Amino acid sequence: MAPPAQTNRSPSPSQPSGKSEVTDLKSQLRQLAGSRLPGVDDSKRELFKKVISYMTIGIDVSSVFGEMVMCSATSDIVLKKMCYLYVGNYAKVNPDLALLTINFLQRDCKDEDPMIRGLALRSLGSLNVANLVEYLVGPLNAGLKDNNSYVRIVAVIGVLKLYHISVTTCIDADFPAVLKHLLLNDQDTQVVANCLLALQEIWNGEASTSGDAMKEREALLSKPFIYYLLNRIKEFSEWAQCLVLDLVVKYVPADSNEIFDIMNLLEDRLQHANGAVVLATAKVFLHLTLSMTDVHQQVYERIKAPLLTLVSSGSPEQSYAVLSHLHLLVMRAPYVFSADYKHFYCQYNEPSYVKKLKLEMLTAVANESSTYEIVTELCEYAANVDIPIARESIRAVGKIALQQYDVNAIVDRLLQFLEMEKDYVTAEALVLVKDLLRKYPQWSHDCIAVVGNISSQNVQEPKAKAALIWMLGEYSQDMSDAPYILESLTENWDEEHSAEVRLHLLTAVMKCFFKRPPETQKALGAALAAGLADFHQDVHDRALFYYRLLQHNVTVAERVVNPPKQAVSVFADTQSSEIKDRIFDEFNSLSVVYQKPSYMFTDKEHRGPFEFSDELGSLAIGTESDVPAHVVEANDKDLLLGTPDKEESRGAGTNGSAYTAPLYDTSLLSTATQVQPELPISNPAAAGLSPQSSLAIDDLLGLGLPAAPAPTLAPSPPPLKLNAGAALDPGTFQQKWRQLPICLSEELSVSPQGAAALTTPQALPRHLQGHSIHCIASGGQAPNLKFFFFAQKAEESSIFLIECKINTSSAKTQITIKADDQSMSQAFSTLFQSALSRFGTS
Q1: 631 within some domain
Q2: Is residue 267 assigned to a domain?
Q3: pLDDT in tens, 569-601
């Protein structure tokens, strides 16, 4: 084997070719360490730059740590900054080296230059080594009392860093009290803002274990303190203003006069040039007026102009962030923005993500007066070179058609889309025409005339093909070629990979058979045979259901498969109202941009006290409780998070061993129209089945069984008894909660004694456990608490699941019950209410 070719590439001048260069660098730094010659600082800078560049590209230069520290004995602030950067990087990964930096950092904390004092204090706090916290207390105390505001600003953040390194050291040094004093008395607004940030984080962390910390946290939301911050808000930086406004959102005014006072104080913040300040102010206005319907609507009108101004200025990214908030407001109150629809027209140079959001808003604000202009604009976008935007614009036209009464012009536009020679336009238009016919059946004649000219071979997208097949089955009496098109599709059954299309094809062939039996008999036989042999469980089950239905009674089958058409008045929304309300509560956050609540995209560690209350995975009873607590490691797709799991399609072999699919006999169909409607078709031999296999299939659907005995008067059910030793796996709880329907949802009152007892949330689970009702998770923060309970029926496996939301201030509780045995849900509700009524009295 030939030796590898030698490369002629020379090493990068900024990258050492070996250890020798780092060694040379070390010796040069050592020579300069004690030198006081003129120009030595310039030489140090060049060497420091090399060290930092090596460190940045991942080369280990920790061997020069001592020399870097020795060279830091200078008044050159640039050298100080580079040295602090180097020290902070290697101190984190090598705590032993961090010990070498303590002396010179403490010395620099007493430097005459406030900038050096601040930088040294910041670097000292950034060492993040638990064994060195004792060296941090003294400099922090001095920094908090420093005459220079920059040093105090750094010291306040240093206290917060110390809290995260060692909570005990921070609390024992009484730093929270010092920060509180600075918060109320310091003249520098940035110091005040940093104190507010640090105290919020410290007291939130300590509130669960310390009553004093809880009182201090509540004091931040007192009227005097809120007004103190609001009166100084113009002095704060933009970031600090957002911090203050975020605190004001949590304040609960005593009356409407306070609400108007706060809004008057913040009125000019809506004109601020910074988008974050405007959005934070808008959030305050919106949340303060939630209980005042008329004023709330006026707030929408007031904040509309500033937000529209922000959308039209700044970068596309900033416009998108503001536009996302406008989108949320438009969806909540479209009538407020109906006259401003032209602001949502797409510009040619806008990114596609901005255009998509504007299309959704145009759909929402369209009304009778603006529909024609908006639809005309949207039709222009259908020819856009950006295919996703073209698709979205066609969908927008369809959505407007479904929400308007006068759809004449819109239907004509949609039918024109069908005639365009673009596959994606035709596909989207077919889906929309299907929905249009479901809501406006009177337009079937015009639509079917155009749809009949479309070849099924030219439609490849599954949703579009499914829509076309649906129309072929639903309106087969008006389309002369419908049976033959369905027959050709059935012949190519194995080539169709979409289960959705195969399901629609089964139903369409059934519908067509009842309207045109002779022409469809062969297609139905082939479709049922192919469906029964299909590897997809849903397709197989539907084919089997249709087969058994026809075998049972043809007339009944027709009533089930082809009932009289009823117009669909409302289409299902993709997001529940609860999810939308949660997003609105998190206004001015990423939740609005992502269009989902924060608990769906943040980990449990960073969720706030209220954000995790709906997520079972982060609800748990404290370790001090006697009630067994279950920690649930749930992902963000749990149903309790509001995002249902996507079902995975089953592969071949998932339906193989349960039963054998029957062979299909077309003679069943040839005689179907001649059989009396009242007589079931139940000849197993005629269908090519053995009596045993026919009986197995009959048993599967409950057919062919002996007649049930005459009903007798059932005895009254025994009183409900629960299993005191019931146990339930958290994963099973989530699965059952996802699958079971709601049996009961009631609002109950809690006794004053019970509400008072909830100051310790563990008291309720402990009480209910005495009634054989077990807590699997709990969470929330006073006054809003949430619990999940379960119970098991004695001597049976029937399970009851309970969600219990309690507001201690109003002494009200909302319970939701789900049960395996729904007939016992009312009895269990009575038992649960009885147990709850005794809470706090025993």
Answers
A1: yes
A2: no
A3: 777 766 677 788 888 888 999 999 998 888 888
Q: How far is CA 201 from CA 152, 177, 425, 582, in A?
A: 18, 14, 53, 23
Can you tell me whether residue 839 is helix, strand or coil? coil
pLDDT tens column, 365-397: 888 888 888 888 888 888 777 888 888 888 888
Instruction: For 590-648, list the strands marked E by DSSP.
Output: none
Strand partners, 778: 787
Q: Give the pLDDT score at 630.
A: 40
Question: What is the rounded CA–CA span in Å between residue 144 and residue 156?
Answer: 7
Same domain, 753 and 644: yes
Instruction: Give the integer Cα–Cα distance in Å for 645 and 497.
Output: 22
pLDDT tens column, 747-791: 888 887 787 788 777 788 888 888 889 988 887 777 788 888 999
Looking at residue 25, its pLDDT comes to 83
Full domain range(s) for residue 491? 455-570
Interatomic CA distance for residues 584 and 597, integer angstroms: 9
487 domain-assigned:
yes
Q: Are residues 722 and 839 in the same domain?
A: yes
Candidates 429, 496, 440, 441; CA nearest to 468 is 429
Please indicate, yes or no, whether residues 491 and 634 belong to a single structural domain of this protein: no
Report the predicted TM-score, pTM, of the whole model to 2 decimal places. Answer: 0.64
> Considering the domain boundaries, does residue 259 fall inside one?
no
Q: How many domains does the chain have?
A: 2
pLDDT of 105 above 80? yes
- Token pair belonging to 119: 């930088």
What pLDDT was estimated at residue 696?
38
Decide if 772 contacts 726 (C-beta within 8 A): yes
Give the type of residue at 801: L
How far apart, in whole angstroms, are the C-alpha atoms of residue 776 and residue 790? 7
**Residue 312 tokens, joined:** 């039209």
Q: How many helices (H) and strands (E) does the chain have?
A: 39, 5
Question: Do the strands 774-781 and 799-807 form a parallel or antiparallel pair, or are they unpaired?
Answer: unpaired
* Beta partners for residue 812, in sequence order: 749, 807
- What are φ and ψ of residue 180, in 5° steps? -65, -40
Domain co-membership, 676 together with 770: yes
- 839 touches 815 (CB < 8 A): no
How are beta strands 744-749 and 799-807 bridged, if at all? unpaired
pLDDT for 99? 76
Pairing of strands 744-749, 812-819: antiparallel
When pLDDT is averaged across residues 444-467 and rounded to a whole number, the result is 81
Do 639 and 502 fall into the same domain?
no
